Amino acid sequence: MARSEARAPGRRGIGLTAPFTYVALIAVAFVYIFPFLVQVSNSFKSDEEATSAGLALWSPSWTAAAYSTLFANSNFALWTMNSFIVTILVTLGRVFFVSLGGYALARLQFPGRTAIYALLIAVMAVPSVVLLIPKFLVIKSLGIYDSYPGMILPLLVDAAGVFIMKNFFESIPVAVEEAARIDGAGPFRTFWSIILPMARPALVTITILSFQGSWNELTHFIISTQSPELTTLTRGVASLASGQLSSGNQFPIKLAAATLMTIPVAIMFFIFQKRIMNASGGAVKE
Amino acid sequence: MTTTEEMVRARGPAPAPGSRRRPGFNRQTAAGWLFVSPTLLILGVFMLLPVAMAAWVSVSDWGGRGSPWGSGVNFVGTQNYADVLGGRGLAARDFGTAIRNNLYYVLLVVPLQTALSLTLAFLVNKRALRGKGFFRTAFYFPSVTSSVAITVLWLFLFSASGAVNAVLSWFSIQGPNWFQDPRGLIHLMLGGGAAPPALAQPGLFGISAWEWLAGPSVAMTAFIFMAVFTTSGTFMLLFLAALQAIGEETDEAAMVDGASTWQRFWYVTLPMLRPTLFTVLTLGMIGTWQVFDQIYTGSHGGPSKTTVTPAYLSYEAAFIAQDWGRGAAIAFVLFAIIVAFTLLQRTVLGQADPALPSRSQARADRKRQLEVRNGAK
């Protein structure tokens, strides 16, 4: 096309199209950020004001009433505690089990290894929604329905995590372990005190993914619990959304709940921003 | 240490006859099995066993009380599947409606999220761009927040007097009451009249052709916007990783040869992005056929069942209507649909060669490893 001639061959980067690129990017970024600003600002408004002037980011008569109502009229504190308990235990367990499994698949020679690896890939291919009813059936038959074990155990291992760790361990030079083995260290010693410390970056990835995953998990808790004492934030806020507290639309309260439940993952996100951006190249959340 | 090892030995399986015996063999075998045993146990008990159990429930008349293996539970053959797939009953009509709703969702979300994420990746990949980190963060942030929180926000933004309608009113457009509006988009485009008699007869799953052609409801459209909003950041990162793997040299070479921006994109970059494009389309499709959280939180399938999806219907049938056989059958049919669509997509995209996606996967993995390692510095 003729346009190519107008361009000096040495010119590169965003050159001529720069203004367009910036305008487009700023416009899209605005669309992506604005909803969250609306969320926070409306959580500090009164019911009437949120309904009549939802777009306004600043309200002269701002109030924290929605937050106090939220804590007074719902079990928000309890939900938060449950979410933390489950998330922390799941994350700790996952980091350990997933790296153990990944290490065995990457480095230990044993009969059945290939079969286990194939099984892992097969499990990753099963859509989680299909497992909704089946998981409930098993949890119920094992007698752990409506209990912390029922909420935590099924989430303790995730196939994608094993996969990520296996790939990582394969990238560590074998020589390191051979030296340890010659020194007489057993497989667990080698794994625990030599290999695991080298795997810190991958462990951080797993930590982020499982923290985010279990904090945001909803379906598993719907099918594994029913009592109010075991409600997590996702289940609790979902019940608020469908109007449990309702008299009127109560948008500020719901938005306050949504804002608060976002804070832990947001903190996690901003601390490990760089790592997340790199790590999620392979692990996609839907 | 000794006790651990003894335990290990006791638990490890006997070596296969004829296998090579060398020093340390037993030890590695035992350690190997011990190390993977938590993974095997959890995945086996909570992934494989459930599937087997649900397969039985889907051909039984279990009502949710007692054990599905109990004596009162009968084998009903393909009855549950027939109820859902055949016939003109309520079960079939609900299933047909759910398929229609989700099909429009998939057909709109997948192309939109792919095009948007590809565009964003291109824009933020430019070397001379300032504020790269800011833009990437802004686009990715919606992907880390929970679907429940985003749905709550969406209910507010798309309420009758919400932010979206306020913006529309600047252009003198009277916005709909999004989440309460069951009218189909295609019906609306056609002027909203009644069904022509030729299309009003009950058809597939007892649903008339007119209803099949309704398009996504206004309520579903709000969910479609939400899906594009929350997934484009993740897919942008996938495209970005691929673009960085291609590097700028290729692009520069094409530039030296006199190729225009558009030519470089269409003939050089896009073909090289093909494996990633395939991955994004596949993941997008698998994800969009599984919509559940948003529906559970936001609409419970309403208005007029126009946001019911097969995943939600399966949940509703089992946990609310206590019709477990039907719920399990719907889940298996959904699984089959996802598999069928994945295969169809493979054929349509001409990726019949099974080596291609796996090779691209391997490359993506290597890339990620490198990034993870570099991140350590």
Characterize the structure shown.
The model of chain A is unreliable at 1-14 and 279-286 (pLDDT under 50). Chain A has 16 helices and no strands. By secondary structure, chain A is mainly α. Chain A is globular. Chain A has two domains: 17-63, no CATH class; 74-279, MetI-like fold, CATH 1.10.3720.10. In chain A, helix 5 (76-107) packs across helix 14 (233-241) and helix 10 runs antiparallel to helix 11. Chain B has one domain (81-375): Orthogonal Bundle (MetI-like fold), CATH 1.10.3720.10. By secondary structure, chain B is mainly α.
Span of the ends, CA to CA of chain B: 34 Å
Major sheet characteristics of chain A: none
What would you say the CATH architecture of the largest domain in chain A is?
Answer: Orthogonal Bundle
State the CATH architecture of chain B: Orthogonal Bundle
How much of the residues of chain B is beta strand, in percent?
under 5%
User: Shape of chain B, please?
Assistant: globular
Low-pLDDT segments, ≥5 res of chain A: 1-14, 279-286
- Largest interface between protein chains, with number of residues from each side: A-B, 122 and 124 residues
Oligomer: heterodimer
Overall domain count of chain B: 1
- Average pLDDT rating of chain A: 84
Features:
heterodimer, A: 286 residues, mainly alpha, MetI-like fold, 16 helices, 69% helix, 0% strand, B: 377 residues
Task: Present the secondary structure layout.
The complex is a heterodimer of chains A (286) and B (377).
Chain A: H1 3-6, H2 18-42, H3 47-52, H4 65-73, H5 76-107, H6 113-125, H7 132-141, H8 148-152, H9 159-170, H10 174-182, H11 187-198, H12 200-215, H13 219-224, H14 233-241, H15 251-271, H16 273-279
Chain B: H1 2-11, H2 25-57, H3 79-85, H4 90-125, H5 132-144, H6 147-157, H7 163-170, H8 185-189, H9 209-212, H10 218-246, H11 248-256, H12 261-288, H13 293-298, H14 310-320, H15 324-348, H16 355-375
Helix pairs in contact in B: 1-2, 3-15, 4-10, 4-12, 5-10, 6-10, 10-12, 11-12, 12-15, 12-16, 14-15
